[in-house]
Fold each of these.
Amino acid sequence: MKAIHKSGKRKTSIAKATLNQGKGTVRINSKLLENHTPEIAKMKIMEPLLLAGDQIKGFNISVSVNGGGWSSQADASRLAIARCLVETNKNLKKKFLDYDRHLLVADTRRKETCKPNDSKARAKRQKSYR
């Protein structure tokens, strides 16, 4: 089987996942997923793996992710991993979409830019009439 390469994006984070034949190890930036911190990010990344179940036992997944913060990096990694798993087994697509659409479809929301002559995106300066 050839290696499968997929990418995922969230805000400014970009994750590139590679899926190969192997023993079922998952590495994020060359560190094992078990050692990944914070715990909530690790749980987020594990969602597609738990949904796939025993189907990931024969594959090694390696993810390189950079940019953004830990939360958007976790979302980008999760997206890339889910896309790789769907490539190996098309039956997982419906399962992933029913669980959470953002496992396969990127979340395109971005931070709103600050307006000119103001320090915030939406809140305007109050006018004083006194």
Note: The CA atoms of residues 55 and 89 lie 8 Å apart.
Amino acid sequence: MVRKAHLHNLHVAAHAKMVEFAGWEMPLWFSSISEEHLAVRNNVGIFDVSHMGEILITGNDALRFINYLSTNDASKLSCFSGQYSTICNPSGGIKDDVLIYFLEGRGYMVVTNAANTAKILEWFQSFQDRFSVMIEDLTLNTAMFAVQGPRALETVQSIASSDLQGLRRFGGQMTLLAGQEVFLSRTGYTGEDGFEIYIMDVAIDSPERAIELWNSIIEAGKDLGMKPCGLGSRDTLRLEAGLPLYGNDIGEEVTPLEAKLDFVVKFEKDFVGKEALIKQREEGLRTVRIGFELLDMAVPRKGNPILKDGELVGTVTSGTVSPLSRKPIGMGYVPPFYSSIGTELEVEIRGACHKIKVVGWPFYDITKYGRARKTN
């Protein structure tokens, strides 16, 4: 059965292009992928990401539980702050990449990819008898929006009851937005500044509060270039920022070390998959994630072979034409020997070979775009 999120009827009424994604019917775009992408890079956009999963861990062993089942160190979290992390299987493969928040007084909230919510919930439950914890799936009673772009702060601040200016990246707080209590964090998956907003305790069959807040945010940003955005531009934005997508660039056969996510692996603590990752680190990686640009015009896609002098050396995992630069860009995996910036390889697309060059990410000028851009 395909699920319909809180704002489904609102999106249909707005004539959004609706598609099935991870068991949910969600908007792919409202106007166009390119237009929405550029709105986020240049101004501000809002995404309905209510299909994402939220799992709450409470109890005396909540921290010990989270730290054992994730690679990052949740003991470093201050009140309402979050961290990016991975959940690994015993072989070190990535079961999901997640956000973990410490909600003081409520426990730890794990935000999963929509396709993995049931899998991670079952994985957590398989360890539950070893710890004094309670596990609750909040997904169907939580609406989630992402407001992203260089004017996201200006937009959200205009309807917030508290000062958001000093909120650091991955910092969060409970606040009122347009009179509604929400949990808000300064996070996102676009490369831009922005916020992810959680409206708690709102059932899908009683979505009025979620609809009201969505409309309030749209109204707050209407003079700032605000666009409602779908999953299409969310994908091109994250790729342009060099961020991996679960099911494409990462999965259970890929480790955080191979995916260049080693910054979320804290070897000083114990966690599921640690021994396998230590062994891999000692023996050396057989493959690593790279970013690349095509040197001519063609569109790389998942599954395209990566070649060196006609010999297969890797595979494309994500690809598109950047709406910002209009250049074809992508990610893939190759042996470390071929991963240095500037290395030239080839990608086979529809039977034809196209030259590519390994480049660093993000795929844009960080002085002009992204949350670290220089402002005058």
Note: The radius of gyration is 21 Å.
Amino acid sequence: MVIWPDKIACPIVISFDLDGISGTINRNPASKNLPTLMSMREYGPSIATPRILDLLDSHKIKSSFFIPGFIAETHPELVLDIHRRGHEIGNHGYMHEPPSTLNSQEEEKILKQGSEILKDITGQSPVGYRSPSWELSPDSLEIMKRNNFLYDSSMMGNDVPYLIHTKEAPIIEIPIHWELDDHPFFNYIPFLNQTNVMASPQHVYSVWSEAFEGLYKYKRTFVLTMHPWIIGRPGRLNMLDKLITMIKSFQGTSFMACKDLAVLKKYDYI
């Protein structure tokens, strides 16, 4: 049995990984020479994110945006807008580097670089991290804890926040899952041989709404991860609007940023 504080029945996190062009360039540097691919990815920060911010405002929801340092450097006004609207900004590497592809020294250097860039823009150091491609290295959690991170959001070992012990100290894990991610359903990039049939918004709505109802039933947490270049297309964003409206109709749902959910971990709710 889970007993949340403040009459909360199910914490809800609507989060975004603002990758822009960084993810595809990191995966294959030659992709930067493909204007159509670059335009599709740049759609995320340039067109979709302002639209997403307005949607969140309309629902009075505070969210978490995980932003690579490169995207922050190239879109500082957007990062400031996200920050000024009261949303959390988390560390997402520099050029969307999966920690599993780095050695320990490279990983820590990139983590610090991303945090410094975000702090220079917003005046605040991020307290949360989400790994690009959702794969950590064996050293990741210790590196995060050594650099004063409150939580990580890259692992799938539970459906409520949980503690992971490191040599430094325990760190809070805000768990995620591919079921609650837009990428597996909508991603389509022929240049990278990613040509799965795209799901319809109606199908994704059914998957996400069923996932929510199950998590609500068991009093767990609903953590949704999206990418503006994917979810920000009008038909998909309209589906997200409907999903949020449906979730809000359930008594005891509470929308919050990842860092706020991490703070709830101090309660003995498991």
Note: Residues 10-264 form a domain with the TIM Barrel fold (CATH 3.20.20.370).
Amino acid sequence: MANVDAPRGLVPVKMLGNKYETAGFSTYKVASGYASNIFNGTAVQLKADGTIEIAVDAKSNSAKIVGVCGGVNYTDSTGKPIWKNYWPAGTVTQGTVAAEIKVYDDPDQLFIVQADGAADQTSVGANAPMVGNANGNTTNGMSSMELDFSGLGAADEQLRVIGIVQAPNNTAGETNVDLVVRINDHAYTNLAGI
């Protein structure tokens, strides 16, 4: 049976090694009026002003991934408190106070991500960039980012393949296979600052 084409960005699944899994996140800031949607499951990076923005799809030596969006909360321009699965592009908060964004930022957090190609066991240990990190669904707030199978290889890239999800409906070697990955290009494991 073919794998289902259902990208959902990076979904936290467990920790690297045998560490206790909390699926915990840290709280960061998104600037009021930030002009792009940040979906649940979207990889994010820190800007020079300390706020969060969407991470670029291809490896960038100037910006490292700090983690993955897990939702936002803010007070809208009318004074109503809002909790959402994603940051809606261009949202202006009350008093233009920065919104809070929850980010899975532990460098050892592992995630499930769908590959846009036919990854198999030979993919384990390889690196790959993301594709479609800025894309998602405004109805459910979920990212539609995938692992870019065409960029899979030994070069330094954003994601490292740790394994293949073991599930009856997930067949290795077929398109849209779900993989377990780690952020390879992580801000907190890189010696350079922002």
Note: The two ends are 45 Å apart (CA to CA).
